[in-house]
Automatic annotation (TrEMBL):
Pathway: Protein modification; protein ubiquitination. Its EC number is 2.3.2.27. PANTHER family: OS01G0116300 PROTEIN, RING/U-BOX SUPERFAMILY PROTEIN. GO terms for molecular function: polysaccharide binding; ubiquitin protein ligase activity; zinc ion binding. Belongs to the RING-type zinc finger family. ATL subfamily. It holds the Pfam family GUB_WAK_bind. It is a single-pass membrane protein. The chain crosses the membrane at residues 12-29. This is RING-type E3 ubiquitin transferase. Its main location: membrane. It comes from the Eukaryota. It catalyses: S-ubiquitinyl-[E2 ubiquitin-conjugating enzyme]-L-cysteine + [acceptor protein]-L-lysine = [E2 ubiquitin-conjugating enzyme]-L-cysteine + N(6)-ubiquitinyl-[acceptor protein]-L-lysine. It is found in: Membrane.
Length: 251
């Protein structure tokens, strides 16, 4: 009688324990799918509002903040329309992402870049409207530097601020190509340019500054409301499971 009582108690404890551990592991899995990740061992930390679109469900990120890893573990941001850039750093407190063009020619992308359909704006406060000119190589006595990655042996491409007095410049052997449709950072034509893009929505910096995490309210991407929550980084799940097995040994 006594023995069977102990046995059934133990059986019940055992099932409660299994259930608890199962529940904890499940909770862990739910939270884990959105935890911070990165591409390879050295990529910048990726967390909300960003997500890795191939590895994490859509509610882990905010619309427009999808990143991916390429085969060489580069962190890839795609901007409209079809501009692939590599991410070097993400500052979650100031809400700035720094990217560069893997082909080292940001100017090549400018004609089709449409930031207004993205979540980002240029962070550089000094911006300029530019007109691009195609000049024969003979005329290199300009006050401006050519854009090396767009120029060839038989032609030089120049970017000239649209409000310059172009008539006073020796542009006789030049033809106008196009005006850039929007203002760009004044130094964007420099070789090996690192582009810094800023986002204002969602405003997760208020969470980040308090050392908290940020996520979608109700895990609902269409809702687009965000909230701060307490994060315990460095393997909370493991600690909870250890607590579970301690309970098993105690009776
Ligand atoms: C990418 O990162 C993974 C995980 O750290 C590593 O095993 C792999 O060798 C890396 N691949 C390259 C091409 O660096
Ligand atoms: C950029 O995208 C916006 C929103 O999708 C669109 O209204 C606008 O026409 C686009 N601009 C260009 C130059 O394509
Ligand atoms: C998400 O939010 C939208 C708009 O508030 C609502 O219509 C929809 O039912 C929500 N979906 C879920 C799964 O809660
Ligand atoms: C996580 O662990 C790393 C190294 O073990 C440590 O540098 C970092 O401060 C820890 N982060 C938190 C939030 O405890």
């Amino acid at each position: 009688m006594r023995n069977s009582g102990v046995n059934s108690n133990m059986t019940i404890s055992f099932f409660i324990l299994l259930f608890t551990v199962g529940l904890i592991i499940n909770l862990g899995a739910c939270q884990n799918e959105c935890t911070e990740s990165h591409c390879g061992d050295y990529g910048p930390p990726i967390r909300f509002p960003f997500r890795l679109k191939d590895k994490q469900p859509s509610h882990c990120g905010y619309p427009g903040f999808d990143l991916s890893c390429d085969r060489s573990n580069n962190t890839v941001l795609e901007l409209p329309v079809s501009i692939t850039l590599f991410v070097t750093s993400i500052n979650y407190k100031s809400q700035v992402i720094q990217v560069f063009d893997p082909d080292h020619c940001v100017p090549r992308h400018l004609p089709k870049l449409n930031l207004s359909s993205s979540a980002f704006i240029f962070q550089e406060p000094y911006q300029c409207d530019y007109t691009l000119f195609n000049c024969s190589p003979a005329k290199r006595d300009l006050y401006y530097d050519s854009i090396p990655c767009l120029s060839g042996t038989s032609h030089h491409i120049f970017s000239i601020p649209s409000d310059s007095f172009v008539d006073s410049l020796p542009l006789t052997s030049c033809t106008k190509l196009y005006n850039l449709p929007f203002s760009v950072p004044y130094d964007i034509f420099e070789p090996n340019y690192f582009l810094r893009l800023e986002w204002s929505k969602p405003t997760c910096n208020r969470c980040e500054r308090r050392g908290k995490g940020c996520r979608l309210k109700n895990n609902n991407r269409t809702n687009s409301e965000t909230e701060c929550f307490n994060v315990k980084r460095n393997g909370t799940v493991k600690k909870l499971v250890v607590t579970g097995s301690f309970y098993m040994h105690s009776p």
